[in-house]
Amino acid sequence: MNYNDLASDISVNKVTKALQRIGYIVYRVEEGSEALNKIKKIITRGSSVMNGSSVTLEQIGYIDYLKSGKHGWIDLHARVNAENDKEKRAKLRKESTLSDYYLGSVHALTEDGEFVIASNTSSQLPHVVYNSPNLIFVVSTKKIVPALEIAMRRLEDYVYPLEDKASMAKYNSHTGLNKVLIFKGEVTSSTRKINFILVNENLGF
């Protein structure tokens, strides 16, 4: 399987129905600029936002838009980065896990609606697992795979080497698959809103 190929319409239709059946909100767009416009409509003014390190978010222009300050949101990522005191920064980072919205991507998404996210530090996982009431995942259709076994293979054989290379180039430090999250669904009583923006463009790893 070529993990860099966009998924077929049949596969995208399968995952769309599966995600909706689980209770997620699904948007399908053709390119990154449309994904960014969708994000602008989803996030309400005055809401706090946090994001993980994401090539996808960079490519669609979200990071630049966030830094512009033209959105009317509370940028918790900027607050964390602006703090020079290590202890205060750590406290702000913990508090940021309670953001109204968390944005990121996934490393693999199965046709059954399960998704995999790996992390070196796990800083983004509290948002995803429980804390943030609104999640927005921007996902290139190339990340869609038939089953969980192949999702793990995609992560280990394809994504990890690319992430490690990018980490060395940016931080001069290796990354690691220290925490791997398999997200299968939410309890029926949950009031969280989990949004998937499926993009028919080659984005991210």
The major β-sheet equals:
6 strands, parallel
**Alpha-carbon distance between the termini?**
15 Å
Order of helices and strands: HEHEHHEHHEEEHEEHEE
Low-confidence stretches: none
**How many β-strands, per DSSP?**
10
Strand adjacency order, main sheet: 1-10-7-4-2-3
| CATH class division | Alpha Beta
Please give the radius of gyration in angstroms.
16 Å
Helix content: 40-55%
Total of DSSP H or I helical runs spanning 4+ residues: 8
Gross morphology: globular
Number of domains: 1
Structural class: alpha/beta
Average of pLDDT: 97
Provide a concise account of the structure shown.
The protein contains eight helices and ten strands.
Write the layout of secondary structure elements.
Blueprint: H1 9-22, E1 25-29, H2 32-42, E2 48-51, H3 55-59, H4 62-68, E3 74-75, H5 76-82, H6 86-96, E4 101-104, E5 108-110, E6 115-119, H7 125-131, E7 134-140, E8 144-145, H8 148-171, E9 179-183, E10 193-199
Parallel strand pairs: 1-10, 2-3, 2-4, 4-7, 5-8, 7-10
Antiparallel strand pairs: 5-6, 6-9
Helix pairs in contact: 5-6
Provide keyphrases for this structure.
205 residues, alpha/beta, Rossmann fold, four-stranded mixed β-sheet, FTHF_cligase-like_sf, LUD domain-containing protein, LUD_dom
What can you see in these coordinates?
The protein starts with 8 loop residues before the first helix and ends in a 6-residue tail after the last strand. It has about 200 residues and is α/β, with parallel strands linked by helices. Helix 5 (about 75-80) packs antiparallel against helix 6 (about 85-95). It has one domain: 3-Layer(aba) Sandwich (Rossmann fold), CATH 3.40.50. It is about 40% helix and about 20% strand. The chain is built from 8 helices and 10 strands. The mean pLDDT is about 95. The protein has helices at about 10-20, 30-40, 55-60, 60-70, 75-80, 85-95, 125-130, 150-170, and strands spanning about 25-30, 50, 75, 100-105, 110, 115-120, 135-140, 145, 180-185, 195-200. The strands form 2 sheets. The chain has a 6-stranded parallel beta sheet, sandwiched between helices. The chain has a 4-stranded mixed beta sheet with strand order 8-5-6-9, with helices on both faces. The radius of gyration is 16 Å and the shape is globular. Pfam families: LUD_dom (PF02589). This is LUD domain-containing protein.
